């Protein structure tokens, strides 16, 4: 599939409405409770806690519940760290530095626990967003709200086992920490740390707000399984985000009240989950306004600067992520790139075409992919 056609291709649904409904409910219940008691300023902590519902989507029920509980604990810890940084009044460079460390350690722990989505994107988002709030809730309060929301998400996962969600039939076992060596785990973590750190520096130099968005965008492509998929993920991230900024601009032009934003967040979460496994760019048309509306609830500000920051920081972050995955390619990926050059020249007529039989004999089998880097 070409890069261009991938933007217009949406594979058939695989009962995506079922996990989408579960995840939307995980977001909806705590948000509606906070809306009822007039505390929508606390909604951001509840939404981060509900991120636990995103994990283990295509896994057997028991594995999904275990991974959701583990991911929920990690997200809650990130929320607490973020709240502590905000409460202490740490300057933004310090917050971003801590978030970069979380990017690396979160990716390492996620790989060790075989969490899917892989990587540390959601951990970066939670720590960076809460840490840069001008006045976050007390750490204990933010942590409790996130923990209750995460627990509800795991509970919905148990309930939905009775409506047929989950993998059916025999499932291949996954070795502990994907069978990776300690060196491979730390190298995997290092890619996330370097990409997030570089994105934080360049994002800060841009002079715009919300530099942690650049860190989130930098982490997105690294989690894909191979170089081609990572490049595609980065391009989709940029194109989908820019489209999502347009959607957000329209929504914010409606002069939304708090209850409007809550309703939109729930709807957008459902729509995002319908498409995230089928077309990443389309999913980001909904993920982007979801993230921006969450930010608006927690800390209302000027819409134009918010939209500009989201667009520019995403481009910066995607470029950093691509640079890291290209420079730190595996040996197998470098060999594949070298062998691809003659094939490209043949396709463009620069070299005579090699007979198909000879090409098949000369081409080695693909090296196994690193399962730690499955798609988000």
Describe the structure.
Residues 354-376 are annotated as: Disordered. Its main location: membrane. This is FUSC family protein. α2 (17-36) runs antiparallel to α7 (139-159) and α8 (182-205) runs antiparallel to α13 (303-327). The longest helix is centred in the first third of the chain and has 27 residues, at 61-87. The chain is 69% helix and 0% strand. The two termini are 19 Å apart. It has 376 residues and is mostly helical. The protein has one domain (15-166, 180-357). The protein has helices at residues 3-6, 17-36, 43-49, 61-87, 92-112, 121-131, 139-159, 182-205, 212-222, 227-252, 258-275, 280-298, 303-327, 331-347, 356-362. It is built from 15 helices and no strands.
In short:
With 376 residues, this protein is an all-alpha fold. It has 15 helices and no strands.
Discrete helix count? 15
Distance between the termini: 19 Å
Computed Rg: 21 Å
Mean pLDDT: 84
| H/E topology pattern | HHHHHHHHHHHHHHH
Q: Based on Cα principal axes, name the global outline.
A: globular
**Main sheet?**
none
Beta-strand segment tally: 0
Low-confidence stretches: 168-174, 343-376
**Residue share in β-strands:** under 5%
Helix vs. strand class: mainly alpha
Helix content: 55-70%
Please tag this protein with its features.
376 residues; mainly alpha; 15 helices; disordered C terminus
What is the topology?
Layout lengths: L2 H4 L10 H20 L6 H7 L11 H27 L4 H21 L8 H11 L7 H21 L22 H24 L6 H11 L4 H26 L5 H18 L4 H19 L4 H25 L3 H17 L8 H7 L14
Helix pairs in contact: 2-7, 2-11, 3-7, 4-5, 4-6, 4-7, 5-6, 5-8, 6-9, 8-9, 8-13, 9-10, 9-13, 10-12, 10-13, 11-12
């Amino acid at each position: 599939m070409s890069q261009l056609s991938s933007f217009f291709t949406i594979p058939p649904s695989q009962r995506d409405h079922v996990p989408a409904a579960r995840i939307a409910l995980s977001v909806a219940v705590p948000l509606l409770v906070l809306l009822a008691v007039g505390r929508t300023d606390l909604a951001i902590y509840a939404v981060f806690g509900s991120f636990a519902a995103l994990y283990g989507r295509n896994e057997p029920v028991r594995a999904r519940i275990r991974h959701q509980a583990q991911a929920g604990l990690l997200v809650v810890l990130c929320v607490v760290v973020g709240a502590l940084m905000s409460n202490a009044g740490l300057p933004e460079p310090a917050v971003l530095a801590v978030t970069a460390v979380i990017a690396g350690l979160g990716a390492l722990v996620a790989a060790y626990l075989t969490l899917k989505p892989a990587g540390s994107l959601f951990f970066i988002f939670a720590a960076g967003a809460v840490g840069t709030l001008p006045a976050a809730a007390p750490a204990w309060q933010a942590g409790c709200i996130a923990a209750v929301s995460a627990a509800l998400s795991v509970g919905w996962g148990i309930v939905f086992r009775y409506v047929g969600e989950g993998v059916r039939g025999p499932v291949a076992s996954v070795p502990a920490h994907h069978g990776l060596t300690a060196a491979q785990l730390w190298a995997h973590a290092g890619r996330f740390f370097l990409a997030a750190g570089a994105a934080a520096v360049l994002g800060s130099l841009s002079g715009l707000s919300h530099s942690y968005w650049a860190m989130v965008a930098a982490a997105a492509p690294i989690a894909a399984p191979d170089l081609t998929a990572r490049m595609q993920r980065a391009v989709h991230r940029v194109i989908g985000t820019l489209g999502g900024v347009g959607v957000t601009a329209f929504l914010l032009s409606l002069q939304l009240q708090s209850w409007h934003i809550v309703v939109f967040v729930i709807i957008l979460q459902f729509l995002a989950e319908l498409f995230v496994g089928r077309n990443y760019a389309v999913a980001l048309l909904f993920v982007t306004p979801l993230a921006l509306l969450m930010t608006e609830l927690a800390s209302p500000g000027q819409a134009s600067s918010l939209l500009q920051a989201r667009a520019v920081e995403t481009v910066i972050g995607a470029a950093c992520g691509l640079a890291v995955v290209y420079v730190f390619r595996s040996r197998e990926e470098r060999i594949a790139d070298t062998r691809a050059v003659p094939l490209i020249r043949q396709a463009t007529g620069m070299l005579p075409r090699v007979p198909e039989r000879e090409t098949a004999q000369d081409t080695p089998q693909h090296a196994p992919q690193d399962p730690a880097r499955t798609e988000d």
